[in-house]
Amino acid sequence: MTSSVSRAHASIDPMRVLHYAALVVLAVFCVAPIVVMFSTSLKVQTQIFSGGIHLLFAPTLDNYRDVLGASGFDRYLVNSLVVGIASTLLTLALGCMAAYGLVRLRFRGRRAVAYTTLLLRTVPLAVLAVPAFMIWDHFGLINSLSGLILLYVAVNLPFTIWLLYGFIQQVPIELEEAAAIDGCGSVRIFWKIVLPLIKPGLAAAAIFTFRIAWNEFILALVLTDRATRTLPVAASLYVTDIGVDWGKIMALGSLIAIPPLIFTFIAARQIITGLTAGAVKG
Question: Exposure of 79 by Cβ count < 10 A (0-12 exposed, 13-18 middle, 19+ buried)?
């Protein structure tokens, strides 16, 4: 018995223990803000400002009732869904075609174009607010969902092209040549051959694009009005001259976090399915 215990202790890898300990610390670091946000949403204003961290308190759903019952919440929710879904679909459609053209078409500078598109995404969104307002105002796109959708497409398209460029590069050209010999046209080859093989890339791009469009605040604040504002902008309505209603902000923040989590879970399954589809034992 003693020898088996000593062998078990001897077989413990310190680096492995350190690795898992680091993962636990990272997980706690990532989950802690979510726990604080959700717990704060269940407190009344006096509990929030009582000072200190209180793990035991009487939870209340008043903040959620006030947020869900507020006038305009359903409209803001619909606006966010329309903007998020439409901008994601448009970005994926344009990004797929652009990335496919950069990979398959031969022209001078195509590789430089492919790798420099990501540089456009490094521009902070706050820097784009004033120029975007002036340009969109000139074209009459201010205070419209279509204007916000087009701007999010422009913001997310460079990353989507860069990401899908690498996935399409991994698709063997021989598959497309064989389909062309069988009589498939270019559109059918792209739809039937290329798209199914880059599902993991599409899912990753969709997650990134939807989360940006759903959570973005600065551009939505500048380019929308009372009728077209999204949920993140609606959260700023609880910051008034009287004070900040942290309970309602956290309740709305908890509600805002639900759709991206659901969308990420659904899209992540496509990533796993795509990565394991070719895992055939030789």
Answer: buried
pLDDT digits (tens, 9 = 90+) for 224-264: 998 999 999 999 999 888 888 999 999 999 999 999 988 88
**Which of 205, 170, 134 lies closest to 278 in space, CA to CA?**
170
CATH number at residue 114: 1.10.3720.10
Residue 247 lies in a domain: yes
In a domain, 282, yes or no: no
Q: What is the pLDDT of residues 262-273, one digit of tens each?
A: 888 888 777 766
Residue 247 shares a structural domain with residue 127: yes
Q: Give the domain range for residue 42.
A: 2-62
